[in-house]
Structures are given as C-alpha cells and as structure tokens.
Amino acid sequence: MSEISALYRRSLKTALNWYVDRVLWRPVALEIRARFEANRNVASTQELRKIILAAEKELEENSHPDPYKYPTAPGGTKWERNIPPLLFGENPESRHH
C-alpha cells in the first residue's frame, strides 16, 4: 500500500472516530476524497511532500482523544472477556502469541 493510500485510509478512520453514525460521516468522507482527488495530478515530488506533510499535521491535529475500538479488538470493551480456563498443566505463557 502506498503512503498516500495509507494516509487516505487513516483520514477516513479518523473522521469515523468523530462521526460514528455513517449517515453523518459520509459527507465528510466525500469531502476527504475530493481533497485527495484535487491533488491527484501533482507531479513535483517536492510539492507532493509538502502536501503529505500538511495532511499528516492536519490528521494529527484532528485525531480523536478516545478513538473508536472494535469491542473484540485489543483494548476494546470485550477484549479477553471470556477467556477459556487453563487446562490442567497448561503453561499460561503458552497463550501469548
């Protein structure tokens, strides 16, 4: 995945942290897409680097203080909620990946 694609995905995910309802998020996602499309044909690597750095800075400034985590993801509300008990003689350290 290219750096620009990754930046685009992070921008969408950051916006989704602020607009959990997809109906409210969709117009913001379209605006993000339009901003990326407006810079699609920039050929100068120096100009492109400036645009990427500005977008990274904006993304950092707009990051959510409590980003959404899927409930079953690490740090989510259901992460390791119902861990099966250890089997007799099983080493607890063997469960860590």
Let me know the average pLDDT: 88
Distance between the first and last residues' Cα: 26 Å
Radius of gyration: 20 Å
Low-confidence blocks of residues: none
Largest sheet: none
Main location: mitochondrion
Subunit structure: Mammalian complex I is composed of 45 different subunits.
Membrane topology: Peripheral membrane protein
Subcellular location: Mitochondrion inner membrane
In short:
With 97 residues, this protein is mostly helical.
Task: Record keyword descriptors for this entry.
single chain, mainly alpha, 3 helices, 97 residues, elongated
Provide an overview of this structure.
- 52% of the residues lie in helices and 0% in strands.
- The protein is mainly alpha-helical and 97 residues long.
- It is built from 3 helices and no strands.
- It has a domain at 3-62.
Itemize the secondary structure elements and their pairings.
Blueprint: H1 3-18, H2 22-38, H3 45-61
